[in-house]
């Protein structure tokens, strides 16, 4: 058995100063029981906790670290940038360079704004949609998560799903009232909502490949319906690609479906582990943002030079070829995990798109949040703890996504498949 005593002590100390001992809820391991691991360092595909236990890491900071931990080039570029100062609050050429790079990869972002988190990106995109259309209602999908701004904390995924909360105390009723929710992948539900409310809807925001209830790809018909209905009713379509951007595919989920949203939000990989979010899209819409237009957006640290450097250094190392390799590795891992479950007679559904992957203790099919909720979360909790014992660090919730990096090689994948087999053996012995 691994010794976690230093993490346990660190958590008790942290709990004196921070609610629940953490700065973001799912980190606390509350739903899987036990205390969170405190991390000392990471390199490549591996992290090490403060008890000197090593793990193959598939959380990767919840997505950003597509090049793994402490990539040599990213570290060198950041060290270099730091010597020139950490922030100026004035424009730098780095911002234009990153914007150019992003546009080359995801061309639907004709213009964009840099922010410091995914939450800020989606919040600002929603304000833009409401400001431009002069409508208040927005549509989101049950089990999709778009950060923690008021209008979007309704029937959300991620921590809200993990802790079974529909909305948060503190979200004004008036705002929650303007957020209409529909089941994910429910084509008829979307059509009837637009029939009734079409002219009141400012925008639809959607994770084209949902990652905050485990991985659930949107169907082509579903996403096309969103494109058609928003166009017909004069509302905007926002693809929230904070997670799927540079993850589901090099050019994002929008390239897989050949659907062009009006606005896109990005985050995670776009900052390479530093705080960056982006919202952008049609130039005629973006030109409404201050100071070009009147819809307000600002940020002291927006476009921060270190954050821009983290993003640039990361994006400059990505390529189609790298995604082909990482996607093949992810598929091989999925096949191995599914085989392990089958060999142990455990019902399991595995989903992956590009470098995003998840497994559900559920015979499937898993196409929406109701399906995910039917998964065996008690089994998940037991299994997660066994994976830790085996040196595998995965997302501590059935309602989250795991990730692959460029540093996970055949060696790590083989070790992980063996660890899944061992974890099944261990749970079955309990
Ligand atoms: N949108 C999506 C699709 C996300 O996955 C997340 C974070 N997991 C967010 C928005 C919010 O991003 P952040 O945590 O950086 O605020």
From TrEMBL:
Query: What would be the name of the gene that encodes this protein?
Result: hemL
InterPro entries per UniProt: 4pyrrol_synth_GluAld_NH2Trfase (IPR004639), Aminotrans_3 (IPR005814), Aminotrans_3_PPA_site (IPR049704), PyrdxlP-dep_Trfase (IPR015424), PyrdxlP-dep_Trfase_major (IPR015421), PyrdxlP-dep_Trfase_small (IPR015422)
Q: How does it associate, per the subunit comment?
A: Homodimer.
What Gene3D superfamilies does this protein's entry cite? Aspartate Aminotransferase, domain 1, Type I PLP-dependent aspartate aminotransferase-like (Major domain)
Please, which domain of life does this record's source organism belong to?
Answer: Bacteria
Question: Could you tell me what this protein is called?
Answer: Glutamate-1-semialdehyde 2,1-aminomutase
Which cofactor does this sequence's record say it needs? pyridoxal 5'-phosphate
Q: Where in the cell is it found?
A: Cytoplasm
Stated EC number for the protein is 5.4.3.8
Instruction: Reply yes or no: does the keyword DNA repair apply.
Output: no
List UniProt keywords, sorted A-Z: Aminotransferase, Cytoplasm, Isomerase, Porphyrin biosynthesis, Pyridoxal phosphate, Transferase
Q: Name one Pfam family in it.
A: Aminotran_3
Pathway of action: Porphyrin-containing compound metabolism; protoporphyrin-IX biosynthesis; 5-aminolevulinate from L-glutamyl-tRNA(Glu): step 2/2
């Amino acid at each position: 058995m691994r010794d976690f005593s230093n993490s346990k002590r660190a958590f008790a100390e942290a709990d004196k100063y921070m609610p629940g001992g953490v700065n973001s809820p799912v980190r606390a391991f509350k739903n899987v029981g036990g205390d969170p691991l405190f991390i000392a360092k990471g390199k490549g595909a591996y992290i090490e906790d403060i008890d000197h236990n090593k793990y193959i890491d598939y959380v990767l900071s919840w997505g950003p670290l597509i090049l793994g931990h402490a990539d040599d080039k990213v570290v060198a570029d950041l060290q270099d940038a730091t010597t020139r100062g950490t922030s100026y609050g004035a424009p730098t050429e780095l911002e234009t360079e990153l914007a150019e790079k992003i546009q080359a990869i995801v061309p639907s972002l004709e213009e964009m704004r840099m922010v410091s988190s995914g939450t800020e990106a989606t919040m600002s995109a929603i304000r833009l949609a409401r400001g431009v259309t002069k409508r208040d209602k927005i549509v989101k999908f049950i089990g999709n998560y778009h950060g923690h701004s008021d209008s979007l904390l309704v029937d959300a995924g991620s921590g809200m799903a993990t802790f079974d909360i529909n909305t948060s105390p503190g979200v004004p009723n008036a705002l929650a009232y303007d957020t209409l929710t529909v089941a994910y992948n429910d084509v008829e539900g979307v059509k009837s909502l637009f029939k009734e409310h079409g002219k009141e809807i400012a925008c639809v925001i959607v994770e084209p490949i949902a990652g905050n209830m485990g991985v659930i790809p949107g169907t082509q018909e579903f996403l096309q319906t969103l494109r058609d209905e928003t166009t017909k009713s004069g509302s905007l379509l926002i693809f929230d690609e904070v997670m799927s951007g540079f993850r589901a595919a090099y050019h994002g989920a929008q390239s897989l479906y050949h659907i062009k949203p009006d606005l896109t939000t990005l985050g995670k990989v776009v900052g390479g582990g530093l705080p960056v979010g982006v919202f952008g899209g049609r130039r005629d819409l973006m030109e409404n943002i201050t100071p070009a237009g009147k819809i307000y957006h600002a940020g002291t640290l927006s476009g921060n030079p270190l954050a821009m450097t983290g993003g640039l250094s990361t994006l400059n190392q990505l390529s189609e070829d790298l995604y082909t390799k990482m996607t093949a590795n992810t598929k091989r891992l999925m096949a191995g995990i599914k085989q392990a479950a089958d060999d142990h007679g455990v019902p399991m559904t595995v989903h992956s798109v590009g470098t995003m992957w998840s497994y559900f203790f559920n015979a499937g099919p898993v196409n929406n949040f109701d399906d995910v909720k039917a998964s065996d979360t008690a089994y998940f909790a037991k299994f997660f703890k066994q994976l830790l014992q085996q040196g595998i660090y995965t997302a501590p919730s059935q309602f989250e996504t795991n990730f692959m990096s460029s540093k996970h090689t055949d060696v790590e994948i083989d070790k992980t498949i063996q660890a899944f087999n061992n974890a099944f053996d261990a749970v079955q012995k309990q």
